[in-house]
Specification:
heterodimer; A: 110 residues; alpha+beta; Arc Repressor Mutant, subunit A; 15% strand; B: 887 residues; 12-stranded mixed β-sheet; 8-stranded mixed β-sheet; 24 strands; globular
Chain lengths: 110, 887
């Protein structure tokens, strides 16, 4: 049970990371800040897990990375969605919406 | 926004596995430091900010390990994918390069196809004959046994039946012993056909561990004298004659004129001694023969108990034979037994021949590889500019090496595929060119095919060959110095490169010399062998063996009557000069017997002199053209009613009657009554053509007639055209009779092991040597021609300065002489070293025969120098003006 919860968490995190990158290349720190700020602290994810997710997505070919210069003029590693990653995100997003709708529908019935 | 990816991709600067760790550290450091900066800017105490950042991040050490693992895995896969895709690129590039130079590529592919093809063809023979297990259970434990005695004609002999029974009973080393005897049968009711077969003891197949695919093998008692005839057939005969009838067991066929029951079918891969032996039946000798301890006719095989060595078996058998010599001195006094592994017995005699051929094709392939290497080296020089450009654009040496090796391997594989096609053709041709009698008696050979094993071998061989011929050119072409060639336009073929090619060609010549020496030695052997005076005239002689249904010819009179009518029938034809009949023809080892001369002291037990013997009709000597030296030969009056007479050969006369007239002496010990010597005839080889001719006794046919006789008919005209006439004559006298193995005496001579074992290697090694020689000459021509082309400017200057054509020619030829000389010297050295491997196969000429080796070496040296003349002449035609502008 515990492991499947972890898997779910990992899968969810992957989807969120892909979503974060859907507006353009970002470095890991920016991704972390964005998730933290957008969820207003609801999703408490260790940054470590985030990086694992980024590298794993890169391994699967959904994102690719390059070194570039950050806003504060430092060398930072930027991640960018690949076309395959974009397709995967679309798929995951629609899966999630359908799942969430179903859960909502059940919860609303009294 | 600039895309920082592009140049990186262009230069292939992906992080290597080594830099992964550093990049991850950089990435995490950036994260933590930026976070701390942000917090401090938000008014946080730096120490507090560090704590917060660290807490938010989690365990840095663990993260590092995890990320490194992921990235390494990713890079590993990436590298493999890249490697594969660039390999594909290399292969495409290589194929394009090959198509762009069709002449060059075809030369290489043809060379490789010949080299690999010949090699794979011979390998399929090596595999079928030497590598594959014999088709029996635990074949390594099977042995063959011979009796031997220093007092018999050929030293060793089969076992007598009582000896065999004693061995079976007393030995402590075999789990069982079985016996066999070659035979021929007449199968069928009307117009029966003759088939090869074998007679065996009932337990023979149990000893070999052969299980039938239909029915059963023989059971105890089926080999008793007078037991009803039963047979087993091979799966080949089952398929050809009985359409794989599943209910074959229990069916009856006519065998030698009597009904025999088929009890089982042998498995498809079964073969023993003679692959053409289709019918197997239990031994059927009469009770009397089975009780004679001095009558040797049974071949014996044994299965060693597990853990028993051949040496132990030898000791055990010797001790049994020692006991028998004491118990039965009359028959066994000088006898011992020999035990040899069955594999050695079956393939021992052909193993050196097969290995020799394998060695020859290995040499040929090596020369082919050197030739290809040479061609690639030359092209490598021509490609120096291309290589330099690619190197300048960032292709590393490893990358260039790989490109070169890919080209070689592509060449090798395409050449290998073509080679396997060549191998198929060559193997079929090889098997077809072999006399059937030789083909079927080399175990497994008739089943040799280019199968999966051979294909695998051929493919591996072509890759190995590609590495051999590709490595040197690749190293040479990509060595760092070559990059400088971009400056002088790739024209500066280095002195070192030329020297290397010269050495390679010298090596080719050396290898060729060894092969040609081998071929020459076999040619000399064959010439010497054919020069042997056989003591009879083999021309215009047609021979065959007549098969009579035993069951219908039980009385001597009926046999004599048949052959008298056959002789008369044959004499009807105007083309027939003489009709000889004999139990054995020349070059066919027959039985031997021991004899004594009346009036001489009785020899010690077992030490009576031994002679080969044949039973012949009166016309036999004139039909074969055997000279009568003294006295008379037989007449039609020498039959069972007359006093027994014999004709002896010169060897027997010389051994027993030196300086004495043998005519009128009596021979005893060969029958119930003494036999009078009435004539002496010339020596005729009994076994092999080149062997010493043993003492031989001839007895008149009418005195002890046998059903199955060999006929030798002297005819006018082409003997092969007379075969139908002979067959018809036999059928005309008795439709139940037939002939087998009809052949002219010349063919028999040609197919005899003595001639075959020289002619066959001569033919094959000759072909290999010829191909190798052509390759080597192409090699010589190639390097000289190339070096002339390279030195066009030098030649032009020389000519311009007044050098004569002569001196230019000699300049070029001198290079050829050096190469050829070095090659010939090395080749003769190698031939001397390798000679001992073939000395056993030669006849009448030593493996180190100076005349033969010198002739071969001289011929090749001349040929090699001659190959330089064409390019040398071209050098003299260089126009100095053109040459000086040659850039």
């Amino acid at each position: 049970m515990a492991s499947s919860e972890l898997d779910l968490l990992q899968g969810t995190l992957d989807t969120l990371v892909l979503k974060t990158l859907s507006w353009g290349p970002r470095h890991g720190y920016a991704v972390a800040r964005w998730i933290r700020d957008t969820s207003e602290g609801t999703l408490l994810v260790e940054d470590r897990a985030l990086y694992v997710s980024l590298h794993r997505l890169e391994e699967r070919g959904w994102v690719q990375s390059e070194w570039g210069l950050s806003e504060n003029n430092r060398k930072a590693k930027y991640y960018e969605l690949t076309p395959a990653g974009r397709r995967h995100l679309r798929q995951k997003a629609s899966d999630w919406t359908a799942y969430a709708n179903a859960v909502f529908k059940i919860l609303r019935t009294t | 926004m600039n895309n920082p990816r592009r140049p990186r991709r262009l230069f292939r600067l992906a992080p290597t596995r080594r830099t992964v760790q550093r990049e991850i550290d950089d990435e995490m450091r950036f994260h933590l430091e930026t976070r701390i900066d942000d917090l401090v800017r938000g008014g946080c105490d730096p120490a507090e900010a560090e704590r917060i950042a660290s807490r938010e991040f989690g365990d840095v050490g663990e993260a590092r390990v995890e990320l490194v693992t992921i990235d390494r895995r990713r890079l590993g896969r990436l590298a493999v994918r890249e490697w594969m895709s660039s390999l594909g690129q290399d292969v495409r590039f290589a194929l394009r390069g090959l198509r762009a130079r069709p002449g060059f590529s075809l030369t290489i592919l043809l060379t490789l196809a010949l080299g690999i093809g010949a090699n794979a063809a011979i390998f399929s023979v090596v595999d079928a004959v030497l590598l594959r297990q014999l088709p029996f259970a635990n074949p390594d434990r099977l042995v063959h046994m011979w009796e031997f005695s220093s007092h018999t004609v050929d030293g060793r002999s089969e076992a007598s039946y009582p000896d065999y029974l004693t061995w079976r009973e007393r030995n402590r080393v075999f789990s069982d012993l079985g016996g066999y005897q070659n035979a021929r049968f007449l199968v069928g009711a009307d117009a029966p056909v003759a088939v090869n077969g074998t007679k065996v003891t009932w337990n023979f197949f149990n000893v070999l561990g052969v299980r039938p695919i239909v029915g059963r093998t023989f059971i105890a008692g089926e080999d008793d004298a007078g037991a009803p005839p039963v047979i087993m057939i091979t799966s080949g005969l089952w398929e050809r004659q009985f359409g794989r009838d599943p209910a074959i067991a229990g069916k009856r066929v006519m065998l030698d004129g009597a009904a025999a029951t088929i009890v089982g079918v042998l498995p498809p891969d079964f073969h023993f001694r003679d692959a053409s032996s289709d019918v197997w039946r239990p031994i059927d000798r009469g009770t009397a023969v089975r009780e004679q301890r001095g009558n040797h006719w049974l071949n014996v095989v044994g299965r060693l108990k597990s853990g028993v060595t051949v040496d132990q078996a030898r000791r055990d058998m010797s001790s049994i034979m020692g006991d028998l010599a004491r118990e039965y001195p009359a028959s066994n006094a000088t006898r011992d037994a020999e035990v040899i592994p069955l594999r050695d017995e079956l393939v021992g005699s052909v193993r050196p021949l097969v290995l020799l051929l394998y060695g020859a094709v290995a040499v040929m392939l090596l020369v082919a590889c050197v030739n290809v290497a040479n061609l690639l080296l030359m092209r490598g020089t021509d490609r120096a500019r291309e290589i330099a450009v690619r190197a300048a654009l960032g292709a590393g040496r490893t990358r260039l090496m790989r490109q070169f090796m890919t080209e070689s391997v592509v060449l090798g594989i395409v050449g290998g595929i073509a080679g396997l096609l060549v191998a198929r053709l060559a193997l079929n041709e090889l098997l077809r060119s072999m006399p059937p009698a030789r083909l079927s008696t080399i175990p497994g050979l008739s089943a040799a095919t280019v199968d999966g094993r051979v294909i695998l071998y051929g493919m591996l061989l072509s890759i190995v060959a590609a590495l051999v011929f590709g490595a040197l050119p690749a190293m040479r072409a990509t060595r760092s110095g070559a990059y400088g060639l971009v400056r002088d336009g790739g024209r500066g073929a280095s002195r070192a490169g030329r020297a290397l090619r010269d050495w390679l060609v010298a090596a080719e010549i050396a290898l060729t010399v060894t092969l040609v020496c081998g071929a020459a030695l076999f040619a000399r052997s064959l010439i010497k062998l054919m020069a042997i005076e056989p003591g009879f005239r083999s021309d215009h002689l047609i021979t065959a063996r007549v098969m009579l249904p035993d069951a219908q010819y039980t009385s001597p009179q009926s046999i004599v009557a048949f052959y008298q009518r056959l002789t008369a029938e044959l004499h009807q034809a105007s083309t027939v000069q003489a009709v000889g009949l004999a139990t054995k023809l020349p070059l066919d080892v027959g039985n031997t017997l021991s004899y004594m001369i009346a009036g001489r002291p009785e020899p010690l037990p077992g030490q009576a002199p031994n002679a080969s013997y044949r039973t012949v009709n009166p016309e036999y000597f004139s039909a074969l053209g055997i000279r009568v030296l003294e006295g008379r030969t037989f007449t039609s009056g020498d039959d069972q009613s007359a006093a027994p007479v014999a004709v002896i050969n010169h060897a027997l006369a010389a051994a027993e009657f030196p300086g004495v007239d043998p005519i009128g002496h009596l021979i005893t010990g060969v029958g119930d009554t003494p036999v009078r010597i009435v004539g002496v005839v010339g020596d005729v080889p009994i076994g092999k053509l080149e062997e010493r001719i043993p003492p031989t006794l001839y007895f008149p046919f009418a005195w002890s007639p046998q059903t199955s006789m060999h006929v030798a008919v002297r005819v006018h005209g082409d003997p092969d055209a007379m075969i139908p006439m002979l067959r018809n004559a036999v059928r005309a006298v008795d439709p139940q009779a037939t002939i087998i193995r009809p052949a002219s005496m010349d063919d028999l001579l040609e197919q005899s092991p003595s001639v075959f074992m020289r002619r066959f290697p001569l033919m094959l090694i000759g072909v290999f040597a010829l191909v190798t020689l052509v390759l080597a000459l192409i090699g010589v021509y190639g390097v000289i021609d190339y070096s002339v082309a390279q030195r066009t400017r030098e030649m032009g200057i020389r000519m311009a300065l007044g050098a004569s054509s002569r001196s230019v020619v000699s300049l070029v030829v001198r290079q050829g002489v050096w190469i050829a000389g070095a090659g010939v010297v090395a080749g003769v050295g190698a031939a001397l070293l390798l000679g001992r491997f073939i000395s056993g196969l030669l006849y009448g000429v030593g493996a180190h025969d100076p005349a033969t080796l010198a002739a071969a070496a001289f011929a090749i040296g001349i040929a090699a120098v001659a190959a330089t003349l064409l390019p040398a002449r071209r050098a003299t035609r260089v126009d100095p003006v053109v040459a000086l502008r040659a850039d």
